[in-house]
Amino acid sequence: MDKIKIDNNVFIPMPMSILGVRINSKENYMAVGWISRVNANPPMIAMGIGNHHFSLNGIKENKEFSVNFPAEDLLIATDYVGIYSGKKTDKSNVFKATYGELKNAPLIDECPLSLSCKLVEIINLPSNSIVIGEIREVFCNKAYYEDKNINFKAMKAFFLTMPDNKYWSFGHEIGKAWSDGKIL
Amino acid sequence: MDKIKIDNNVFIPMPMSILGVRINSKENYMAVGWISRVNANPPMIAMGIGNHHFSLNGIKENKEFSVNFPAEDLLIATDYVGIYSGKKTDKSNVFKATYGELKNAPLIDECPLSLSCKLVEIINLPSNSIVIGEIREVFCNKAYYEDKNINFKAMKAFFLTMPDNKYWSFGHEIGKAWSDGKIL
After folding, report:
1. Do A36 and B48 touch (CB under 8 A)?
2. Is B79 within 8 Å of B29 (Cβ atoms)?
3. In whole angstroms, what is the distance from residue B38 CA to residue A130 CA?
4. Total domains present in chain B
């Protein structure tokens, strides 16, 4: 294949989420694309958050946070909380917060899927922090949940690519995992 | 919104990649969906790898690995290296390996995008290990690279959802990041 050497700072496709924290007795929200599951049992998730971000203060203070998955109809609000910092802008009223057992993990009511997480560990890297959280409660719009499966396509979850900074919808089903490979 | 409490073990949409390592002087490959960028500068990537996986041995031994992004035409081969373990199956001939500067990071020739990474740290979690690597070299099919941007849609990168175990294509462009939110 005709490959060329390119810049090391490549970005991979990212599922868009919104981090929810409490700081100074108010909710704050931030768009996050650097996110992945990292542990199977107990279920844990991790995010790469820039060290300068205001939301890190809330996580360090309360050891709790939420991760919310927006649908396409929340694209503008998601982008908004990714542009403006909570240092200068009060974003507490952008979404309606509800709470489960973790009182410092504001669950975004408008998002079809919300996870409340307990901080496990923060790994300090040069420009970012890896925030690892254990998923303690999950709330899903019941229209998108069947047989223990969340239908992200129907939910209209979306993705981000950089540096073209484009949001993308889910495409169509192209194969079956732990299955299609058996024909080789 | 009408949300219900569901099981904590939720999976979020995953960009499909293939980890490449060398073990016992041979290449080994493994499908990986738990992956994200984690540090901006220097560029780092992290993966959540089950502690039982054979590929971890290669990472620990050589402190190097590759991350490759397959196109849809490699879906079956990607799924294959996700099903069968290198403990029992020699997967060294599934792909053609080429090498950059890191001689233990086999770059999959058939994949349009390949990253060679130097191990930074392994974080031990109960069932998985977070493998953090610094991106040291990147090779991209030049048909998909323009103005420092990789066109993942044209490249036909794909996603995985679980537990329905479905692979998904990229959809269409639905918005502009760090831009659309300014109208709020």
Report:
1. yes
2. no
3. 6
4. 1
Q: Which two tokens stand for residue B94?
A: 């599934």
Distance between CA atoms of residues A78 and A71, nearest Å: 9
Minimum-distance CB partner of A130 among B46, B140, B168: B46
A154 contact residues in B (CB cutoff 8 A): none
Q: Return the amino acid letter for A26.
A: K
In A, which residues are within 8 Å of B112 by CB distance? Answer: 1, 3
- Write the residue in B38, B141, B178 that is nearest to A1 by C-beta: B141
Q: What is the pLDDT along chain A (184 residues), one digit of tens a residue?
A: 689 999 999 999 999 999 999 999 999 999 999 999 999 999 999 999 999 999 999 999 999 999 999 999 999 999 999 999 999 999 999 999 999 999 999 999 999 999 999 999 999 999 999 999 999 999 999 999 999 999 999 999 999 999 999 999 999 999 999 999 999 8
What is the pTM (predicted TM-score) of this model? Answer: 0.97
Domain of B105, CATH number, reads 2.30.110.10
Range of the domain at A81: 14-183
Cβ within 8 Å, pair A34-B36: yes
